[in-house]
Write a structure and sequence with these properties.
The complex is a heterodimer of chains A (695) and B (261). By secondary structure, chain A is of the alpha+beta class. Chain A is built from 16 helices and 38 strands. Chain A has five domains: 5-284, Rossmann fold (3-Layer(aba) Sandwich); 288-396, Elongation Factor Tu (Ef-tu), domain 3 (Beta Barrel), CATH 2.40.30.10; 406-478, Alpha-Beta Plaits (2-Layer Sandwich), CATH 3.30.70; 486-593, Ribosomal Protein S5, domain 2; 598-678, Alpha-Beta Plaits, CATH 3.30.70. Chain A is 29% helix and 32% strand. In chain A, helix 6 (202-220) crosses helix 7. Chain A is globular. The radius of gyration of chain B is 20 Å and the shape is globular. In chain B, helix 3 packs across helix 4. Chain B is 34% helix and 20% strand. Chain B has a nine-stranded mixed sheet with strand order 3-2-4-5-1-6-7-8-9, covered by helices on one side. The termini of chain B are far apart. Mean pLDDT of chain B is 81; it is low at 14-18. Classes of the chains: A alpha+beta (695), B alpha/beta (261). Chain A binds chain B through residues 154-155, 485-486, 515, 594, 613-614, 617-618, 621, 626-634, 638, 640, 673-674, 677-678, and chain B through 16, 21-23, 87, 93-95, 97-98, 118, 122, 125-126, 129-134, 137-138, 142, 146, 149-150, 153-156.
Chain lengths: 695, 261
Amino acid sequence: MKKDIRSVRNIGISAHIDSGKTTLTERILYYTKRIHTMHDVKGKDGVGATMDSMELEKERGITIASAATYCEWLDNEINIIDTPGHVDFTIEVERSLRVLDGAILVLCGVAGVQSQSITVDQQMKRYKVPCIAFINKCDRSGANPVRVVNQFKEKLGHNALLMQLPIGLEADFDGVIDLITMKAVYFDGDKGEKIRLEEIPTDLSQTAHDNRENLIDQAAMFSDELTEAILEEQEVTDEMIFAAIRQGVISRQLTPVFMGSAYKNKGIQPLLNAVTQLLPCPLDVENQALDMDNDEQTVILSNTTDKPLVALAFKLEDGPYGQLTYIRVYQGALTKGDTIVNARTGKKVKVGRVIRMHADQMEDIDTIAAGYIGALFGVDCASGDTFASPGISLTMTSMHVPEPVISLAIFPKDNKSEINISKALGRFTKEDPTFKTYVNAETGDTIISGMGELHLEVYIERMRREYQADVTTSPPRVAYRETITQHAEFNYIHKKQTGGAGQFGRVAGYLEPLQDEDFVFENRIAGGAIPTQFIPACEKSFKTCMKKGPKMGFPITGIRIVINDGASHSVDSSEMAFQAAARGAFLQGYAKAKPVIHEPMMKVVVETPTEFQGAVMATLNQRRALIVGSQDEGPLSVIEAQVPLSEMFGYATNLRSVSKGRAQFTMEFLTYKQVPHAIAEELMKKVVEEKKNVA
Amino acid sequence: MLLNPQCGKTNAELTTDKIIYIKERNISMLKNELILNNPLRRMGYESDDILNKGQFGAVMARAGVGKTAFLVQLALNSMLREKKVLHISLDDHVKKVGLWYKEVFSRIATQYDIPQSGQLWDSVLPHRFIMTFRVEGFSVPKLEERLTDLIEQDIFKPDMMIIDGIPFDDSVNSDLIKLKTLSKKHPMHMWFTIRTHRHEEPDPNGTPLQLIPVADLFEVAIQLVPVGKQIQIKALKGPGTYGDQPVLMLDPATMLIQDQA
């Protein structure tokens, strides 16, 4: 492990699906000598890329779990987190970004800025991750890096700065022109390992000079030294330019753009140089924690090893030797044998094995210092937990965790599977906060819920493969909600006199629709109409009612309940009586407040070759979509629509068949919207039928 | 099957046809209120749409004066009347065009103090379709192909089309003639934005240079002219040209059309 933290880079590689990020990572590992042969994602050799260590990932050619690895380049240590590109696994991307200091945003030289690139970019903005861009696939037919750079500026709003120019394109793509050193860079040898520097081809010389001028002009915005040198016509050194650009990158005001073809082994080494020269080291990034003893005040962490430990467990994996916890240390050092405290549970943990990961191989180390990423064995924790030195009550800011939108019931096929399912579910829920599971109290079914069909599919497949748990599933269920549409008053008396102590309570007030919040309870009782000690009982009872709507049994959202009157009895009133009165009041008011059913609407973005645009729109139209618009992007057309989640099941297959497999789509939760009357009636029938079946 | 003696429909048909839910009634009342409040009604145009089917209208102004905001208000007015609007932009992306609508709508909602603006927005949104092209990739045959797709598959049949950002250069004449045919084939009216330039002198009637060669194709032309700190809406061609109508302004703060009276 490097002693100097300035030579450490914690980076991620983020991109749209199929932009080639796993291939790029594979090349980086090869050139940094972490691996000795290169495999392709869906290579003929059947080995698969090194970072795709899960069997399922190799089979489907997608990266599911982010694997962490490290490598060395020009005396710098680079920790790389490979991140998945599917929206279904966004929590993985978000977790990775949370612990990174910088990122490489990979863009496809042909398809350009795609919908997932936009999602990933937004996530980078949320976590303020500086990035450099790499335009991949410059060897492919239709590649046009200049168009991609323009899209990068227009669609993502980046101040993109061309650092290189391509020498030839598509099948003629030979190498790149470095606009700082003003040399043509070629990649010779079987695997592009031999770099040959030449003079810039004469036909590109003028363009290169113009672009260099532009580069220096833009870089000068971030450095007084460079501006002075230009104004006083002194020599502008490469170091000056790099320093200025680095400043722009760290402040997220500049995004340098590199290019190449990972598959053809071109342009990778200059990108690695850029990672070390332009992306920030842990010292350049300000990390904050929350002080739990001090009303969650933000505290700036120091990034030094002499301070008490603050570390974040950002990923868990169930390996052959037990639970593996990926950890990033933000302050202090984590050493073998130390005692640390889990800030969430307050439990003390003794640090056992400390390791450094390289995809699915590992290396034992003694300590993880501030700024580094490593992994621990045998530590019981959940993903997102903070570990700190005893006596320190700091916790890292919580990560944004979206609510699951889809669920399905799973049934074990045999007894052995039943035991294994529970083990698997325990593991998955710890690993992934967007994956949730519970037992339906009415039906006794085990329900799993997550962020999309593919998300749940992958977990079911993992149950089969990793836990030998054979399961059958019910059709996916959508997380419907109930809400009210108008103001309604209630005034309910609960009175019971059946021998023994009586029960009495009257609750009056109103309920009304509420936007942006799920539940607000307001107590406007004056003059002690309801004694103060019974108010919490009323609130508790209202909250319980919200869990299951009287209309169809879905959870209720968006209600403000105000109580402004009531009555009590000196002997017969009790907490229980007021709970019952509040329940009665709620049911009375709710029935009058015109309740409706809401369903999750998804923002669906389909990218399709233009010739299939009509067919794709038809598929969306059949699914109750509101098509917002279509965007012509040269050979591709991007269609944006809002579609009810309940209509999206099986869409991937449908889309593949109408577009000959050439269209792809992304989907993310947008909002809840009212279900049309006809559909609501159908739902109602289903609910009634289900209730009958249960009975 | 039993038929209702009054209207000759089955009960099932009646439930879908005749029932107006209270919430929907409120929304339609809100829509009517907004339509009645529309200041453009006072500009002397015979129909609420200003243009009839097959007719062309132009909104002219220098860059940044408010052409898109003006047209978005015309579009919203049509959408409130349940007319379908196809908005074509050659400058902006779908997201940006969508934001224009959202922004202008929320300003109108604030101005008229609309309580259920979210529901009203949800009810007008299905009446809009945004299509964007790159300027160099735009052609009338391509547009016609897309439009036919939408109409034939019953996805969207526009009553009004806005074309924002088409360059009014030498080649525009032939494009406009093709578009005129298109507007008659699929009956609809079309609005265009025309960017004028400070350094170009208009003709003696005040018609900007870009419009002169194609003026015959346009039934209505409206110019947005900055006057002091305000933007005046001036009719150059069509009703309201002779100064007998109230002066309308585009409020530079909200970009909403205002009646100065």
